[in-house]
């Protein structure tokens, strides 16, 4: 589960409905100027990188409350260059 705010990012690792670990960090000045959609995808990247040791080689689901990400993640071509990086 991931989420982003204008000031920071948060991620939570959940297994079988139980919280396993939490992670968060503040946004840099430049990151705080990203659009909400860019911050939300940044939260996804942050969460996956933070918990990669647990996720590597496994099938997992990313949960977010930001519905526009479904169109971006589901498409073949990202619409924003920063998301493609």
From TrEMBL:
GO MF term (any one): RNA-directed DNA polymerase activity
Superkingdom classification of source: Eukaryota
Listed name of the protein: Retrovirus-related pol polyprotein from
Gene3D superfamilies linked: 3.10.20.370
Keyword field contains Nucleus: no
Domain Reverse transcriptase RNase H-like: 2-77
PANTHER family in the record: INTEGRASE CATALYTIC DOMAIN-CONTAINING PROTEIN, PROTEIN CBG26694
Pfam families: RT_RNaseH (PF17917)
Keywords (A to Z) from UniProt: Endonuclease, Hydrolase, Nuclease, Nucleotidyltransferase, RNA-directed DNA polymerase, Transferase
């Amino acid at each position: 589960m991931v989420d982003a705010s204008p000031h920071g990012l948060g991620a939570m690792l959940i297994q079988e409905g139980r919280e396993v670990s939490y992670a968060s960090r503040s946004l840099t000045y430049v990151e705080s100027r990203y659009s909400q959609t860019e911050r939300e995808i940044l939260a996804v990247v942050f969460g996956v990188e933070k918990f990669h040791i647990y996720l590597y080689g496994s099938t997992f689901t990313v949960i977010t409350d930001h519905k526009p990400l479904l169109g971006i993640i589901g498409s073949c071509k990202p619409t924003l260059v920063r998301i493609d990086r």
